[in-house]
């Protein structure tokens, strides 16, 4: 039976993450503290933790709408901890899954061909976050590591760095076969859902505080029935995402079939994005101010929903699994 409570290690991890995110250069501090590699084996410099702990860290990142590379780093390290060799586990990587004109769950169109001394990849990947050096790439023959591929900058709604990766018989190192492609997709989807859960929780807290103090017609906004009904809808969306997300990461951690749980969590990421519209509406004109914190939450929710291809793609996947 799944336990939704956090154990002592997970609570300590949550508190440490929250503390470091309040510091200057939070991304660097998370990396220096080893939090971006907690899923790696201890022999590779990690803590040997799993999907639930990954979600604990990312939920705190989302709750502060922090622009840090935690999502791709943790999802990549989780995958490498299960499929990579020791030298591969010691390499920091981001993830390249999305392809132009294809849903995230579609088989990759990127092709892998054997050469005399390895593999080469041909294809194009979009929306690759925080591309610095190594990148995990899905292809028809499995999952590969590519070092410093050709890339072109993109513009994410959050302002975070992203890129299109162009592969033209680019040398690559094989990590796992085609049976592992879904495993990488599940790791990234669960990571996105965890961060989105935090984003919605942070936006809800901000909005709740606003409607309690903002007065109209000599009454706090929270005293109007229409307002309480709308904020209740946001709360329900958050709880639904939480249940789906924790169920998905728990099943991944236990080695249980998790395809349906991951797809359901992904669907609720889209619901979280819709709930952010309600938060904006309840803030009135202030919700449109790009200097106000709510804008960061809205941009994060939009970006995370985009990474998963939107709700229609998830409904198609859920229908195919039924």
Backbone shape: globular
Q: pLDDT under 50 segments (min length 5)?
A: none
Report the structural category.
alpha+beta
CATH topology of the largest domain: Butyryl-CoA Dehydrogenase, subunit A, domain 3
> Which CATH class of the largest domain is shown?
Mainly Alpha
Tell me the total number of β-strands: 9
CATH architecture label name of the largest domain = Up-down Bundle
**Taking all residues together, what is the mean pLDDT?**
92
**Which homologous superfamily in CATH is the superfamily of the largest domain?**
Butyryl-CoA Dehydrogenase, subunit A, domain 3
Give the fraction of residues assigned to helices: 40-55%
Give the count of structural domains. 3
Q: What is the beta-strand fraction?
A: 15-25%
Radius of gyration: 20 Å
Q: Sheet with the most strands? A: 7 strands, mixed
Specify the number of helices.
10
What does this entry look like structurally?
The protein has 322 residues and is α+β, with helices and mostly antiparallel strands. The protein folds into three domains: 80 residues, Acyl-CoA dehydrogenase/oxidase, N-terminal domain (Butyryl-Coa Dehydrogenase, subunit A, domain 1, Orthogonal Bundle); 86 residues, Beta Barrel (Butyryl-CoA Dehydrogenase, subunit A, domain 2); 141 residues, Butyryl-CoA Dehydrogenase, subunit A, domain 3 (Up-down Bundle). The protein contains ten helices and nine strands. Strands 1, 2, 3, 4, 5, 6 and 7 form a seven-stranded mixed sheet that branches. The protein has a two-stranded antiparallel ribbon with strand order 8-9. A hairpin with a 2-residue loop joins strand 8 and strand 9. Helix 3 packs parallel to helix 6. The longest helix has 33 residues. The protein is globular, with a radius of gyration of 20 Å.
């Amino acid at each position: 039976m799944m336990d939704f409570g956090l154990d002592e290690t997970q609570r300590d991890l949550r508190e440490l993450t929250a503390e470091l995110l309040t510091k200057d250069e939070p991304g660097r501090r998370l990396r220096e503290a080893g939090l971006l590699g907690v899923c790696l084996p201890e022999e590779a410099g990690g803590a040997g933790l799993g999907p639930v702990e990954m979600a604990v860290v990312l939920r705190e990142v989302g709750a502060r709408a922090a622009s840090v590379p935690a999502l791709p780093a943790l999802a990549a390290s989780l995958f490498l901890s299960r499929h990579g060799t020791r030298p591969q586990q010691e390499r920091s990587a981001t993830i390249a899954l999305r392809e132009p004109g294809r849903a995230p769950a579609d088989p990759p169109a990127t092709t892998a061909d054997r050469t005399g001394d390895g593999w080469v990849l041909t294809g194009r990947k979009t929306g690759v976050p925080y591309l610095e050096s190594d990148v995990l790439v899905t292809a028809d023959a499995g999952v590969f590591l590519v070092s410093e591929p050709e890339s072109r900058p993109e513009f994410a709604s959050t302002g975070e760095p992203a890129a299109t990766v162009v592969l033209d018989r680019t040398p690559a190192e094989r990590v796992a076969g085609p049976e592992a492609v879904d495993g990488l997709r599940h790791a990234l989807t669960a990571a996105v859902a965890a961060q989105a859960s935090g984003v919605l929780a942070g936006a809800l807290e901000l909005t709740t505080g606003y409607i309690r103090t903002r007065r109209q017609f000599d009454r706090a906004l929270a005293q109007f029935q229409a307002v309480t009904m709308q904020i209740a809808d946001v709360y329900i969306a958050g709880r639904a995402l939480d249940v789906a997300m924790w169920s998905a990461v728990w099943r991944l951690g236990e080695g249980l079939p998790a395809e349906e749980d991951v797809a359901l969590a992904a669907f609720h990421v889209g619901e979280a994005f819709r709930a952010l519209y309600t938060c904006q509406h309840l803030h009135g004109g202030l919700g449109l101010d790009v200097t106000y914190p709510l804008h960061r939450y809205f941009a994060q929710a939009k970006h995370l929903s985009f990474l998963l291809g939107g709700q229609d793609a998830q409904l198609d996947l859920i229908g195919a699994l039924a």
